[in-house]
Write a structure and sequence with these properties.
The complex is a heterodimer. Chain A is built from 15 helices and 28 strands. By secondary structure, chain A is of the alpha/beta class. The two termini of chain A are about 30 Å apart. By secondary structure, chain B is an alpha/beta fold. Chain B has one domain (about 10-145): Rossmann fold (3-Layer(aba) Sandwich). Chain B has helices spanning about 15-25, 50-55, 75-95, 110-130, 135-140, 145; strands at about 10-15, 35-40, 60-65, 100-105. In chain B, helix 1 (about 15-25) packs across helix 4 (about 110-130). Classes of the chains: A alpha/beta, B alpha/beta.
């Protein structure tokens, strides 16, 4: 093989790295390592000029290997691989050293951070000596799509793809389509009827020639990879195998059960109800207490289970505006009632919602602020003969006074949380959950509907609480991603796969039994195992298991690991 | 005399623990700077002979960390790693390798804080144990080199 000619690029990442790491010092020291031809720093390696710098150097200095020392490879490995391709180099002749997430952002001593950076970059340089060019393999994309979840997100995604002429399998685990949206009366901020737009959508899904709807159905297992997934669906007692190229998960969220919050006595006071229960009242058009009387005093409590470290730390994002919507609908339905909004911070941030908040204050709605951390309101029974059934005691933050709010009905704006089965669905599709049981997107800003698993997309509130508009946007975004893959027809994926040295293989077949992809077969004539590199996903389990050391892994070979180790341990 | 800085190697999978360590970074959670990560596709890839190699080369402590059970990107690699660890641990004890110098853990992509905590605790633990000279002396005889 050609003698390695390595280019080393140390990124400042503005001040993100340069503030904690002596980047010039790192770059200078790398010049002492054999095979390093060039070692430079640049303010932003990932920028166009940064990439052009690498491309120019590769061409002018006949570099055949590149080490980029910057942020996490999970963020920009692909960017730099593309730059290498542009320069005519195999994209796998790249190694990144992560000196931002793993160094400058987590350490506080500049000398230590610099020496760690030097060690990591040197290890990357040592490793890249053992890189070999890898081919990319092209896989065909099956034109059908599996959509999991029949709420507004799943419905929108299914229609978008089906309207483009492609097959969709829509799986819903309840007995009807529509999800939470189907139970909502009016939308905010313009008070339009949800059923007016949902019902035609649902009807269109059921009648669409390109959509197969499976109700009361759960996907049990998915096998395959981008372009080539399959699953067995049992629907109406018939088992059916379906093939598809991409998956959109739109499994949504569920309402938080507020019974755990003692202050609010949900389940004890009959007229303390959740926002979901009140929405059902609005939809039925009848707002009554449990005893059949009309409530005169209604208190709406925000942030129930949200923004509180005892329950969920995050903001559920839509409840403030829903609470405002409730107050406005109540004002119209019960013009003489007293309406109280007990909020902790008013977050009515979507388009038109701040205006709705301002308008609400002119409709005789009383706003009171409480401290979510130290001053959660408390609901108590009123005495016999009082003007109301309950009292809500609250330390009002803006006036600094303790206020006793009369209430005949209390509406709890409950938090929204990840589905109970989110984990099993995620495991099946090979995607991860965050600490709040919401799926993790590939990139929070730049790739919000993709996941780290190719061919698996997420949309809507299975990722975080969202309103209808955001769910619909994400559904359309995910379907655009899927349609683009379908129209391309094929996709290139890396061949970071395992391979067997037939001379060393003893034919013990242990590797066959551990492979999760049934990618290893057996050649009876030669008495050796054989890897099918279309099926192999490159996990390396067989490599570690092989007692004859006959298997190795492209992209993470034993030599590559040892070269990193020896640099990290023997040199320092 | 300068403070003893143990050499700690962490073999981590790219999908969970590497991402968890990235999250510790994005969340600016500070932790000890002794740890050096080696990124593998899956903990299933980690041959425990690599651990012996690392000790031979001078590691004082080793972390192996991947996805929580059932969260493996490759379905079952972490289970294989776990079984392998159970067997390795007994064998290591039998042969006299100090198993307290190996930490096997699960850290998900969402557990940046947990990653920092594990690194800090393990670094403290290894500081107490001191340099792994006994192993290094043994390996100086080239005995282990010859075996692995």
């Amino acid at each position: 093989m050609e003698k390695p000619r390595i280019g080393v690029y140390v990124c400042w990442c503005g001040n993100n790295i340069a503030k904690m790491v002596d980047v010039e010092g790192v770059a200078a020291e790398m010049m002492n390592i054999p095979n390093v031809v060039i070692s430079k720093t640049y303010k932003y390696m990932c920028s166009d000029p940064g990439q052009d710098l690498i491309i120019k150097d590769i061409k002018e200095n006949r570099l055949n290997r590149v080490v980029v020392s910057a942020c996490s490879p999970r963020i920009h490995e692909l960017t730099f691989r593309k730059a290498l391709t542009k320069a005519g180099l195999n994209p796998y002749m790249l190694q990144m050293a992560n000196i931002r997430e793993h160094v400058s952002w987590v350490h506080t001593d500049k000398a230590e951070a610099t020496s760690k950076s030097k060690a990591l970059v040197a290890a990357a340089i040592n490793r890249i000596n053992f890189h070999v060019p890898l081919d990319e393999r092209s896989v065909t994309i099956h034109p059908a799509t599996l959509v999991i979840g029949g709420g507004i997100t799943g419905i929108t995604a299914a229609l978008e793809i089906a309207d483009a002429g492609k097959k969709v399998y829509l799986v819903e685990n309840t007995d009807k389509l529509g999800g939470h949206a189907a139970n909502v009366d009016l939308t905010f901020p313009y008070f339009t009827s949800v059923s007016q737009f949902m019902n035609p959508l649902i009807k269109r899904v059921h009648n669409h020639k390109n959509i197969d709807v499976f109700l009361n159905t759960e996907v049990k297992e998915i096998s395959g990879y981008i372009g080539n997934f399959e699953t067995m669906i049992s629907y109406k007692d018939i088992e059916r195998k379906i093939d598809f190229g991409n998956i959109i998960i739109a499994s949504g969220l569920k309402a938080y059960d507020p019974s755990a919050i003692e202050n609010y006595g949900y389940g004890i006071f009959p007229d303390v109800i959740t926002s979901t229960e009140f929405e059902a009242m609005l939809k039925s058009g009848i707002i009554l207490k449990k005893n059949g009387e009309t409530p005169e005093n209604i208190a709406i409590i925000h942030c129930v289970g949200s923004r509180n470290s005892n329950y969920h730390k995050y903001c559920s994002r839509v409840c403030c505006t829903v609470a405002l919507k409730f107050a406005n609908q109540l004002r119209s339905a019960l013009p003489d009632s007293n309406i109280y909004e007990l909020y902790s911070d008013m977050r009515s941030m979507s388009k038109g919602c701040e205006e709705m908040y301002t308008a609400s204050s002119r409709r005789r709605i009383m706003f009171m602020m409480f401290d979510q951390k130290n001053g959660m309101p408390e609901i108590k029974n009123a005495d016999k003969g009082d003007c109301c059934d309950m009292y809500v005691d609250v330390d009002e933050l803006l006036s600094g006074e303790s206020v006793r709010v009369p209430a005949d009905m209390v509406i709890l704006m409950t938090a929204m949380e990840g589905q109970d089965n989110a984990r099993t669905t995620g495991q099946m599709a090979g995607i991860s959950l965050d600490a709040n049981r919401f799926y993790i997107e590939k990139h929070p800003k730049l790739d919000p509907v993709a996941t780290t698993t190719n061919g698996v997309f997420i949309a809507g509130s299975c990722n975080s609480p969202k309103d209808f508009a955001d769910c619909v946007s994400q559904a359309r975004a995910a379907s655009a991603r899927v349609l683009s893959l379908i129209s391309r027809g094929t996709v290139n994926i890396a061949v970071a796969t395992a391979y067997i040295n037939g001379v060393l293989c003893s034919g013990c077949k242990m590797c066959i039994s551990v492979c999760p992809y049934t990618a290893i077969g057996f050649d009876e004539k030669k008495n050796v195992s054989v890897i099918n590199d279309v099926l192999c996903q490159g996990c390396g389990t067989c490599v570690a298991l092989c007692r004859s050391k006959a298997i190795d892994l492209n992209g993470c070979s034993t030599k590559q690991i040892l070269s990193e180790l020896s640099e990290l341990l023997l040199k320092e | 005399m300068s403070e003893y800085k143990p050499k700690i190697i962490a073999f981590v999978c790219t999908w969970c623990t590497y991402a968890g360590a990235d999250l510790a970074g994005t969340s600016r959670i500070k932790y000890a700077s002794n740890v050096r990560l080696i990124r593998a596709p899956c903990t299933g890839r980690i041959d425990f002979m690599l651990l012996i190699k690392a000790f031979t080369m001078g590691a004082d402590g080793i972390i192996v960390s991947g996805c929580h059970p059932n969260d493996c990107h490759y379905t079952s690699g972490n289970f294989h790693a776990r079984r392998r660890w159970i067997i390795f641990r007994d064998l290591a004890k039998f042969t006299g390798i100090d198993v307290n110098r190996v930490m096997f853990s699960w850290v998900s992509a969402a557990e940046g804080a947990r990653w920092a905590e594990i690194v800090n605790n393990f670094t403290d633990e290894i500081k107490k144990l001191g340099p792994y000279n006994s192993f290094r002396n043994l390996s100086a005889t080239n005995f282990i080199e010859a075996v692995v």
